[in-house]
Amino acid sequence: MSKLRTPVVIVNFKAYAEVEGPQAVRLADICQEVSDASGITVGVCPPTTELSAVAKAVTVPVLAQHVDARSPGAATGWVTPQLAAGAGAAGTLLNHSEHRMVLADLAQAIQMCKGAGLATVVCTDTEATSAAAAALDPDMVAVEPPELIGGNISVTEAKPEIVSDAVKAVRRVDEGIEVLCGAGVKTGKDVRKAVELGASGVLVASGVVKAKDPKAAVEDLIKYL
Ligand code: G3P
Question: Can you give the CATH number for the domain in which 202 is found?
Answer without folding.
Answer: 3.20.20.70
